[in-house]
Amino acid sequence: MKTLSYQTFKSETHKETAAIQKDDLETFSSQEPLTQPPKTLIIIPAYNEGKNIGAVLEGIQKQSPGIPILVIDDGSSDNTEKIVREHNAKVISLPYNSGYGVALQTGFLYAVKNNFSIVIQMDSDGQHDPANIKDLMEEVQKDNCDVVIGSRFLSKDSYKTSLARHAGMFIFGNIASLFCGQKVTDPTSGFQALKGRAIEFIASDNYPPDYPDADFIILMNRCGFKIKEIPVTMHASPDKESMHHGHKTVYYVFKMFLSIFVTLLRKSPKR
Prior knowledge:
By secondary structure, this protein is α/β, with parallel strands linked by helices. The chain has one domain (3-265): Alpha-Beta Complex (Spore Coat Polysaccharide Biosynthesis Protein SpsA, Chain A). 36% of the residues lie in helices and 20% in strands. The protein is built from nine helices and nine strands. It has helices at 22-26, 53-63, 80-86, 100-113, 133-140, 163-180, 197-202, 214-222, 247-265, and strands at residues 3-11, 14-21, 40-46, 69-74, 90-94, 118-121, 147-151, 192-195, 227-231. The chain has a seven-stranded mixed β-sheet, sandwiched between helices. The longest helix is centred in the C-terminal third of the chain and has 19 residues, at 247-265. The chain is globular.
């Protein structure tokens, strides 16, 4: 069977390819007619989320029926891929765990290849409330923004997290606010809507392969993209550790400061 390949970048010297079956491309629109604006895609990176992904997909299909969903199975060793297929969503399976940024970029490469004009990105653990998808979509279609970030800290509902993580969000949110010239309250939110050239920008070599957070928000702002935050509901995920837990917290903080510093030094890439 013929395959189409997408390159994803883990570093400048490391490349990997996720193969997508041609049949999947041809049948991608086999769901119900879209009830939302055409050419909209929901992207969900997932790693060993077999116990959560089913409920996530059911919630999306209930709240936003007919919008195509693409799950990037990031080298899971559990039944994540099986559960996704059982829920009639499309899946690209990476050969091994490649990281959050690589998985996301794979989805954006797919979106560019298939001419989707709006992309909604969500996490796979159930933290993001599907009821907010319509809010993100409505906002991103306005002329004054290219990227809409769902902020848990603008919502009336209180979001509980560890003191260390909250401190990190506060620090990097304030740094992003300073260099973007606008308030950024939730720089680590993975609940976003993007359109047009912002989608192409993420599919380019400019996208960080591991943790695309405050550094990438600053980079997009420097490149002229209009970014806006809106309140969304986020649920705690007590049965899962954050990607920034333990020793990874130290690496994350160091990497984020370094990445922001490099972002400010470099020339802004062309849009």
